[in-house]
């Protein structure tokens, strides 16, 4: 199998046991793991669950391969976190095609995730009156005009924040996310003014 996958142009790491396989996954962070159910020392179900709950589990796709074609085994594999279940023997063209399709989907999801996660930019000034707020406003406006997604501008300096005044927005009596001492410390201390900008249609 290693020769087949490597011959298709993919980099391959192999492991002879479940413990070694988990170590390889955590070290190399592969895109796909091909996992046999029958291994010395630990079952493929246990290895699958450990990989899925480990540091590489949210990005690695797991394909379990077994000579057992039973519904119970397939259900358990999926419950343990497997993405697919293949019954051996698997025709080489089918295995390569599945790997190619899964890698393509993974790349699309990564790109979508990168766009969804967005980016945080902080603008901080050593003291007031040096133009920090104006820089933040202009930066947010430029970002909103340049990209299709919206940009959020937040002033966390309370009670001295000036973004609300600069943007002509009335400041709230209390900061966003403020809570009383009985409720514990606030997650977000304050948010005097928030402005969302989207590119204008031309």
Topology (elements, then pairings):
Blueprint: H1 2-7, H2 18-28, E1 32-36, H3 44-53, E2 61-66, H4 71-79, E3 84-87, H5 92-117, H6 132-146, E4 151-154, H7 163-166, E5 194-197
Parallel strand pairs: 1-2, 2-3
Antiparallel strand pairs: 4-5
Helix pairs in contact: 2-3
Mean pLDDT: 74
* Beta-strand proportion: 5-15%
The count of domains is 2
Low-confidence stretches: 174-202
**How do the SSEs run, as a string of H and E?**
HHEHEHEHHEHE
Q: What's the helical proportion of residues?
A: 40-55%
CATH homologous superfamily title of the largest domain: Response regulator
Number of strands: 5
Q: What name is given to the CATH topology of the largest domain? A: Rossmann fold
How many individual helices?
Answer: 7
What is the 3D form?
elongated
Largest sheet: 3 strands, parallel
- Measure the end-to-end span: 55 Å
Sheet with most strands: strand arrangement:
1-2-3
Q: Give the name of the CATH architecture of the largest domain.
A: 3-Layer(aba) Sandwich
The CATH class of the largest domain is Alpha Beta
Kindly provide the radius of gyration, computed on alpha-carbon positions and rounded to a whole number of angstroms. 26 Å
Give the helix/strand class.
Answer: alpha/beta
């Amino acid at each position: 199998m290693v020769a087949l996958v490597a011959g298709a142009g993919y980099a391959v790491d192999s492991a002879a046991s479940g413990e070694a396989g988990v170590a390889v996954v955590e070290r190399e962070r592969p895109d796909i793991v091909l996992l046999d159910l029958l291994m010395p020392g630990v079952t493929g179900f246990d290895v699958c669950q450990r990989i899925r709950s480990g540091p590489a589990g949210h990005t690695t796709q797991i394909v379990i391969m077994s000579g057992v074609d039973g519904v119970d085994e397939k259900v358990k594999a999926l419950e343990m976190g497997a993405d697919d279940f293949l019954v051996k023997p698997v025709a080489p063209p089918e295995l390569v095609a599945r790997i190619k399709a899964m890698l393509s989907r993974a790349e699309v999801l990564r790109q979508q995730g990168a766009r969804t996660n967005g980016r945080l930019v902080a603008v901080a000034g050593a003291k007031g009156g040096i133009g920090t707020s104006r820089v933040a406003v202009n930066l947010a406006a430029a970002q909103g005009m340049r990209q299709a997604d919206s940009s959020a501008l937040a002033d966390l300096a309370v009670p001295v924040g000036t973004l609300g005044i600069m943007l002509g927005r009335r400041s709230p009596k209390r900061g966003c996310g403020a809570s009383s001492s009985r409720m514990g410390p606030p997650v977000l201390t304050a948010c005097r003014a928030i402005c969302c900008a989207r590119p204008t249609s031309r």
